[in-house]
Amino acid sequence: MVHSASRYSSLRLLTDRLLGKRDILIPYFQFVEVPADEYEGELMRQIQRLRYEVYCVERNFLDCEDYKDQLETDEYDRYSAHFAAFNDEREIIGTVRLVHPAEHMLYPFESHCTVFDDFRFPPREKAGEISRLVVRKTYRRRRGDSMEGVSREFVQGGSATPSPRLREQRGNSPLLLLGLYKEMYRHSRRNGIRYWYAAMERSLARSLDRMGFKFVPIGPATDYYGPVTPHIVDLDELSARLHSENPFLAAWFDDEPIPLWVKMKTLVVSTLIGAPRGK
Q1: β-sheet bridge partners, residue 253
Q2: Coil, strand or helix: which one is 233?
Q3: Which of 1, 4, 190, 259 is the most exposed place for a label (fewest CB within 10 A)?
């Protein structure tokens, strides 16, 4: 009976993905954007609680004593679009924000990074900064995984596309990261944002590059809870690159129709890999 139920569940999942009821690439997680009028709501508290767990308790980047309510927040939260990832049990497992600071404010990276003399900032209304990207510890597979959920093996050359050989290495394909970035991408396209800034470690920049996100350094590395370098990516160039190098991923990001044979191939490969385990 257990095996029959499992087969039924797997078949239903495959059908849901084929019919579009679940995401074709990341069916085990749900990704949401916090509505602009719900900044004081429960979803934001879940996001800030997860950030507290990672930044304060786990990494000691911030002092727990400064957050008596165990919610990590700052002056940029009210000027940001927030995104969250959930598992099937509706537990928050990842989050990121895209900061759109007010005219009188700096971008977060400007507080601790410098830029090259020849760098020219794009129009302010067309740019946002990726910030507070974290993944829950139980969804980081190995000791060497970064807090963004990127494994050491992936950085050092693991496949950027799921492969049947990854049955025991599912954490090497950072699908949580990819799903959060897709939500930010869709938000940016809807709101006229063409450029993303990000201050990040070399390992994350390398991982993103291997997934098609070619961030360009705009300044030297600096020590900010570890070595980070300010980067920028042009979403127009990103879209063109994906359409040229990875048409499936480009269609997935832009919510364009995906050919049936591509869907079937994706389903077969991901079924061989199996569902991710976060606990």
Answers
A1: none
A2: strand
A3: 1
**Residue pointed to by tokens 């911030």:** 62
In-domain check, residue 16:
no
Would residue 6 count as lying in a domain? no
Give the closest residue to 50 by CA, choosing from 38, 58, 40.
58
Structural domains counted in the chain: 1
Alpha helices in the chain (DSSP H): 2-19, 42-51, 152-155, 175-190, 202-210, 235-245, 247-253, 260-273
Q: What is the CATH number of the domain that holds 141?
A: 3.40.630.30
199 is written with which tokens? 């201050």
Q: Is residue 8 part of a domain?
A: no
CA–CA separation, 233 vs 39, rounded Å? 27
**Closest by Cα among 159, 266, 248 to 210:** 159
More confident residue, 185 or 3: 185
Q: Tokens 């940001």, residue?
A: 80
| 11-46 pLDDT per residue, tens | 666 666 655 667 777 888 999 999 988 888 999 999
The boundaries of the domain holding residue 148 are 27-273
Closest to 252 measured CA to CA, from 139, 171, 161, 163: 161
pLDDT at 271: 53
